[in-house]
Structure to design on (496 residues):
């Protein structure tokens, strides 16, 4: 049942499949794998109306044909994305579940998904508050959903924060999922779970109706088992939305992406290798070096290494930007909910403390406390950080222009670490920060395995060059076919 969007539509047109049958099959698989069997625990809530919606789409098809490009396609969405239905939106927080009230309407991207004919199958678990709550957070854990397991090796981390979206798609519990990213929250779990993840250029996808961290960096994006499916879902959710007040209107053609399946090589593409993102794991280096050789075989011109001037304290500057924007963006979000008693991080902090045994059994809420100490967007620290961002973006653009490159290449991350509720996460390395801070686009796809654990390769493109990196990744994918289904191994550890 490893369907793609194209295969589903082919079967529907041939009379061999209906949306109702497809949804029923996925619900059975979710019960077998997510809730029983391996119990990967990736889905926090099932849409109780999924079958009803599928039946309505089948009836629509009989009279009118396909409703849209995602007709009948079951999609899972992260539990920080609003839906105006019987499901909650909580960012994995039992505090928000109890005190956060109700969504008044669908998030803008959910409106687009429904218009395209998609079926919202359920909400996925995540690292609570999109992994921006406490210092020792454990990716894939939330107070509402518990811990999501990596389907390749169950005692390993899913990474985060779009943990449930990644694990569910790796385990084939839907055709696609939507994750969100501030920095790495699509790219890192996608690579750790052996799937395709796209972090779009900032401004392609509306954030209206998504529980925020930072308007300077937040975006939603598709997570799938193939580049082609990711492209189709990205097309469905892209587009200008005046409800996202930080969004600039682009030409209509900038929201539409086409894959050229007739092109089988990378001739006329020029790629730059970010060597300073290597070196955190020798086996990862070996896999990505092999990938670079494959890119050369496919005809790409490679600049190795490429120089990118980056501030040494970029991580600290980024952290300041997120802290300064967090509370104000949360206040703006909760103004659009009803029946809620949480309107800011201050109230969230208060109720978390009141329910401390349930909300904070493993780690605290230091990031919330630090954000509350920041004094808005006119402080010297924030303005200094934003100036540094501007300089970094100029340097990055100069790197692309001066070298005439189409994309940067780097490891997406390393093999998933053992999930640890005592010490929290252990990140070996990665390359998501470049696109996160700049607003540029990137895509990760499988590049091989280390002891059954997936490793991904990252293609980073200039802002609004999303179609270009999608096509590079699609050609690489079709010529390597690295992805394999998980086997739900309990552990890789050997007793000594």
């Amino acid at each position: 049942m490893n369907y793609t969007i194209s295969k589903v539509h082919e079967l529907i047109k041939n009379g061999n499949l209906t949306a109702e049958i497809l949804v029923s099959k996925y619900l059975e698989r979710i019960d077998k794998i997510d809730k029983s069997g391996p119990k990967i625990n990736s889905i926090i809530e099932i849409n109780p109306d999924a079958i009803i919606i599928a039946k309505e789409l089948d009836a629509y098809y009989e009279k009118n044909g396909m409703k849209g490009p995602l007709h009948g396609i079951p999609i899972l969405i992260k539990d920080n994305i609003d839906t105006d239905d019987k499901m909650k939106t909580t960012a994995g927080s039992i505090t928000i579940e109890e005190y956060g009230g109700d969504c008044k309407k669908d998030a803008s991207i959910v409106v687009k998904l429904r218009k395209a004919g998609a079926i919202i199958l359920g909400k996925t678990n995540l690292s609570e508050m999109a992994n921006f709550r406490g210092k020792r957070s454990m990716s894939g854990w939330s107070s509402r959903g518990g811990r999501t397991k990596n389907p390749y090796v169950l005692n390993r981390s899913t990474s985060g924060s779009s943990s449930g979206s990644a694990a569910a798609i790796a385990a084939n519990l839907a055709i696609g999922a939507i994750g969100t990213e501030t920095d790495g929250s699509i790219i890192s779990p996608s690579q750790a779970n052996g799937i395709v993840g796209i972090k779009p250029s900032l401004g392609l996808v509306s954030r209206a109706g998504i529980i925020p961290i930072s308007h300077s960096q937040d975006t939603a994006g598709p997570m799938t088992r193939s580049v082609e499916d990711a492209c189709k879902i990205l097309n469905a959710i892209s587009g200008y939305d005046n409800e996202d007040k930080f969004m600039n209107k682009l030409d209509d053609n900038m929201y539409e992406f086409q894959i050229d399946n007739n092109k089988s090589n990378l001739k006329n593409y020029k790629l730059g290798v970010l060597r300073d993102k290597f070196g955190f794991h020798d086996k990862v280096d070996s896999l990505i070096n092999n990938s670079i050789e494959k890119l050369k075989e496919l005809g790409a011109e490679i600049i190795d290494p490429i120089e990118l001037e980056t501030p040494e304290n970029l991580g600290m500057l980024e952290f300041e930007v997120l802290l300064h924007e967090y509370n104000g963006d949360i206040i703006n979000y909760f103004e659009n909910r009803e029946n809620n008693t949480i309107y800011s991080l201050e109230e969230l902090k208060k109720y978390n403390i009141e329910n401390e045994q349930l909300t904070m059994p493993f780690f605290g809420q230091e990031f919330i406390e630090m954000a509350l100490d920041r004094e808005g967007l006119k402080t010297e620290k924030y303005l200094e950080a934003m100036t540094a961002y501007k300089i970094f973006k100029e340097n990055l653009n100069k790197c692309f222009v001066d070298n005439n490159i189409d994309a940067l290449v780097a490891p997406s991350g390393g093999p998933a670490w053992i999930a640890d509720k005592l010490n929290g996460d252990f990140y070996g390395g990665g390359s998501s920060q470049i696109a996160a801070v700049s607003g540029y686009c990137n895509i990760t796809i499988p590049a091989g395995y280390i002891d059954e654990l997936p490793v991904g390769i990252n293609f980073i493109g200039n802002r609004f060059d999303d179609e270009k990196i999608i096509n590079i990744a699609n050609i690489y994918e079709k010529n390597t076919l690295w992805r394999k289904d998980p086997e739900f191994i309990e552990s890789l550890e050997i007793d000594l």
Notes: The longest helix spans residues 380-403. Residues 5-478 form a domain with the Amidase signature (AS) enzymes fold (CATH 3.90.1300.10). The first strand starts at residue 43 and ends at 46. The chain has a mean pLDDT of 97.
